[in-house]
Write a structure and sequence with these properties.
The protein has 130 residues and is α+β, with helices and mostly antiparallel strands. 36% of the residues lie in helices and 25% in strands. The longest helix has 16 residues, at 73-88. The chain is globular, with a radius of gyration of 14 Å.
Length: 130
């Protein structure tokens, strides 16, 4: 893997998802972001139970509580593969989106992307998949 930023986008049933890794001086950061397509509101969801359980982190790994993770090159490669499996699995996606619905009802989403444009986001996804 090159030491460059990597971004993969997935379209769910009610949410959009971005899986991103970026190089740092310590290795990489790895973040999964859920986006409400109507409002552009965003939440980092690495520590969501339905997500974190799929990465098989050690029980005492501090990343279990973090919304963005530090990772080695090998870990970040593995994390991208696992994230792809999560978002292509209809059953898992349904469970994750139900949890996100509940989080939003409880006011857990505070980030808003000012330049949000759903059509541009979807256009970028479709152009990458060709």
């Amino acid at each position: 893997m090159k030491r460059s930023r990597r971004l993969k986008r997935y379209i769910g049933n009610r949410y959009l998802f971005e899986v991103e890794s970026s190089p740092t001086t310590r290795g990489f950061t790895f973040t999964i972001t859920a986006i409400d397509p109507r409002s552009g509101r965003r939440s980092h969801i690495n520590n969501l139970n339905g997500i974190v359980s799929e990465f098989n982190l050690d029980e005492d790994d501090p990343r279990n509580e973090e919304s963005s993770w530090w990772a080695s090159r090998l870990e970040v490669e593995h994390f991208h593969v696992v994230a792809g499996q999560i978002f292509r699995n209809k059953h898992m996606l349904k469970q994750i989106e139900a949890t996100l619905d509940e989080d939003r009802r409880l006011g857990e989403w505070s980030n808003t992307r000012e330049e949000w444009n759903l059509e541009n986001w979807i256009r970028k996804v479709r152009s990458k998949s060709r």
